[in-house]
From TrEMBL:
Principal localisation: membrane
GO biological process, one term: lipoprotein localization to outer membrane
Residues annotated as transmembrane: 20-40, 277-298, 325-351, 371-395
Protein localization: Cell membrane
Keyword Cell membrane in record: yes
Keywords annotated in UniProt: Cell membrane, Membrane, Transmembrane, Transmembrane helix
Assigned GO CC terms: plasma membrane protein complex
Similarity-based family: Belongs to the ABC-4 integral membrane protein family. LolC/E subfamily.
Occurrences of domain MacB-like periplasmic core (ranges): 19-252
Domain of life: Bacteria
Name under which the protein is recorded: ABC transporter
Membrane topology: Multi-pass membrane protein
ABC3 transporter permease C-terminal domain boundaries: 281-405
Length: 413
């Protein structure tokens, strides 16, 4: 085996320029594959983290997945009911106190209730449609990231009580209002109430910054004329991956629709899976192209060393030895290229991690490209490279092993 390794080394060094080109081809493929995987995986991880952090892991609303059974169905053998107008029910989640107590008894996380009502925010002759959300400040801190998104004032001012309101900075700009101004909130029932702006938040999501306003839960219940009503329960779990199980149990017990964050973003998560398939397909294609360079080198060596092969076989080297010889040469080129590619990939990933750019939406905030540092990317890239190198080396090796030494020496080949 040692002799075969020495011969393989001699063959590779004997065609130094071509070997170097093949190694660099593999290295470039491996390096850019690592950089692309790090960038795409980092973007995906950052996006999922934003989803997990900005929305509840489980959300229970006063909706139901299926319509309630109608009394007529219990009396008549009905096939279908048409023209049914549901009775307006503004009670929200029935008996919310018992539901919250039950949830807090077993849910491995934090639970917060709220009442969301549609209305209009009015100031100085300007109107803006908004979702007026009544919350319990103490419970809200455990489930909502908006607590840390204030540019003026703070979420704590809502705890002080009174008619305080928290709105987005974009809504404040559209209204022409500022911190400390008094605005009027008008509910869908026509009831209005004055509130003092106690804080301005900026989440970076336009729909929230210009369309949401937070008040105390009791104030929202008074404004919407729904005493003690709650129509939204949000849950933040210690383990976000446990959300589907928690949602299933909550919906089975309470009867209301409980949606896990995975279900709410199912189409997005499916798109990410497809993107990963595309990414690794491109990586495999890059390695395949690099493999053609290795195939070309090994084929050339096989052709040029035909007389040497004949002599070796006449000296007693078996066909298996010939296959191993040229297969080792291909894998050696792939391994050398993979090692250099690791260095190139690390350099590219480090360079991408240093890139800073200014967000156009804010004009001030500086951020970096989301990069995922994972040794798995290096292993996958090297694995693709070695696999393509092994295939590229095996094909000429099989041909070389079948050569007849007598024909070669006679000059038939």
């Amino acid at each position: 085996m040692r002799l075969i390794l020495e011969i393989a080394f001699t063959h590779i060094v004997g065609r130094g320029r071509q070997t170097l080109v093949a190694i660099l081809g593999v290295a470039v493929g491996v390096g850019f594959s690592i950089a692309m995987a790090a960038l795409m995986q980092g973007g995906q991880d950052d996006f999922i983290e934003q989803l997990v952090n900005t929305m509840p892991h489980v959300q229970i609303t006063d909706e139901r997945r299926t319509p309630p059974r109608q009394p007529a169905e219990d009396v008549f053998e009905t096939v279908a009911i048409s023209g049914l107008r549901p009775r307006e029910d503004r009670r929200g989640i029935i008996n919310p106190t018992a539901a919250l107590t039950w949830l807090r008894g077993w849910v491995p996380g934090r639970v917060a209730e709220s009442l969301k009502a549609q209305g209009v925010i009015r100031y100085s002759g300007r109107d803006v449609g908004a979702s007026i959300i009544g919350v319990d400040p103490d419970a809200e801190r455990g489930v909502s990231p908006i607590v840390g998104d204030f540019v003026q004032g703070s979420f704590d001012r809502l705890t002080a009580g009174g008619n305080n309101i928290l709105i987005g900075d974009t809504m404040a700009s559209r209204l022409g209002a500022g911190l400390g101004d008094t605005i009027t909130a008008v509910s869908s029932t026509g009831l209005s109430r004055n509130f003092k702006i106690a804080g301005l938040f900026h989440t970076g999501t336009t729909a929230r910054d210009e369309g949401e306003a937070y008040v105390l839960l009791k104030n929202a219940q008074i404004l919407s004329e729904r005493a003690n009503a709650v129509n939204d329960i949000r849950i933040k779990l210690a383990d976000p991956n446990a959300a589907p199980g928690v949602a299933k149990r909550a919906e089975a017990e309470l009867g209301y629709k409980a949606e896990a964050w995975q279900e709410a973003n199912e189409s997005i998560l499916e798109a990410l899976v497809i993107r990963n398939v595309i990414m690794y397909t491109v990586v495999a294609a890059i390695m395949l192209v690099a493999g053609f360079g290795i195939f070309n080198i090994i084929s050339t060596i096989t052709h040029e060393k035909a007389r040497d092969i004949a002599i070796m076989k006449s000296l007693g080297f078996a066909e298996g030895d010939m296959r191993r010889l040229f297969l080792i040469e291909g894998v050696a080129i792939g391994a050398a290229g993979s090692f250099i590619g690791w260095l190139l990939g690390f350099t590219l990933v480090y360079a991408l991690a240093q890139v800073r750019f200014e967000l156009a939406t804010t004009g001030q905030e500086m951020t970096r490209l989301p990069i995922a540092w994972s040794f798995l990317h290096y292993l996958l890239a090297a694995g693709f490279a070695l696999a393509s190198a092994a295939v590229a080396g095996y094909l000429p090796a099989r041909k070389a092993a079948k050569l007849n030494p007598v024909d070669i020496i006679r000059g038939a080949t």
